[in-house]
Amino acid sequence: MNQSSLSARSLTDQGVSATTERHPGVSVSDLYTAASDLQRLLSKDTLVRTMEPLGPKTTLKVGGAADLYVVPSQVEDLAETLAWAGKHSMPIHLLGRGSNLLVSDEGVRGVVVSLASQAFLDLEVKGEQIRSGAGVRLKRLSEQARQQGLAGLEFLEGIPGSVGGALRMNAGAMGQWIFDVVLQMTTMDRSGQLRTYRADQITAGYRHCPLLIEEIAIEATFRTLHASEIQVKKTMEAYATQRRSSQPIGSSAGCMFKNPEGGSAGKLIDELGLKGQRMGQAVISEIHGNFIINQGGASAQDVLNLMELVRKRAREDRGVELEIEVQRLGL
Ligand code: EPU
């Protein structure tokens, strides 16, 4: 029995009717059919589920379910999934570690793919280079570098994402971002074609890599420098101390807004006196103004309302148009 039929059965057991409309023109039974259709094309270890709740897979812990959720067990399964989604005109979305994500309360149409299987978790050190699969956690990558006495990736220690998500966002901290240390990157396009780019062929800016809007990062090779393990550890500890003193630990999606040119969104929100403002169970952190904390049971709409309040105040009081950093799914 495959995963999609398992999911279908449990939903029926829960009293969800297969004829229920999940979206206008898309019934629950359409989704079961689509899931079994897709599962037939994929290797048996690939997970395909219908109506998979996404909130628990994000650090903010809000939002509804994905129509279809796929964890490809092989790179070829990812290619098949992309081709199938293209053929059926279904949107496709990549879920990293869900650390920079706001999922709609109504859920997400199309296919949500997670690269959390072993095929995307390789980590290989060769001299001063580290090759990492897209599913690897940044924490594991930076720890691996430390253990090998390799410097350069310390700033990634506290970013709660995966390599793939960090590349997509050109994630950064401590004045550096991930494309500062990328030597090359392999991607897959929507037709399943793999391509490898050298760093000088990739354009990346502040929290942005245009190439990865259409293509999906599969792996990257990072440049490091030999150093003493103690020195690397010291740098990581200093970064962790700085992060712990300036950022909250509750459920959040990290910084919600990009910093405006030459300024800090967190400082601006603080100066506007918005810390502690709440909508439902979503609250602007008292520790850092650019973080929204889910105090338990917040909806995506609560978070959106709070973001709108911040943008309105920044616009009206300071003439600043805050750009949203957090990735939105289904919104
Ligand atoms: N500040 C305040 N009040 C606040 C928040 C900040 O006065 O509520 C002040 C700080 O004291 C500091 C300045 O604003 O003088 C900048 O703050 P911080 O050092 O925390 O940096 P940031 O610009 O707010 C950026 C990234 C973070 C990253 C940190 C640390 C963005 C949007 N944010 O924050 O990235 O962790 O630097 O390097 O670029 C993320 O992208 O999700 C993220 C958390």
Helix content: 25-40%
Strand order of the largest sheet: 8-9-15-13-14
Name every ligand kind in the structure.
uridine-diphosphate-2(N-acetylglucosaminyl) butyric acid
The share of residues in extended strands comes to 15-25%
In CATH terms, what is the fold-level topology of the largest domain?
Answer: Uridine Diphospho-n-acetylenolpyruvylglucosamine Reductase, domain 3
Count of alpha/pi helices = 9
Task: Give the CATH architecture of the largest domain.
Answer: 2-Layer Sandwich
List SSEs in N-to-C order: HEEHEEHEEEEEHEHEEEEHEEHHEEEHE
Reading off the top of the CATH hierarchy, the class of the largest domain is best stated as Alpha Beta
What is the SS-derived class? alpha+beta
Please summarize the sheet with the most strands.
5 strands, antiparallel
Alpha-carbon distance between the termini? 34 Å
Low-confidence stretches: 1-15
Write down the domain tally.
Answer: 3
**Radius of gyration based on Cα positions:** 21 Å
Structural shape? globular
Number of strands: 20
Indicate the mean pLDDT.
Answer: 93
Oligomeric description of these chains: single chain
Concise overview:
This protein has 331 residues and is α+β, with helices and mostly antiparallel strands.
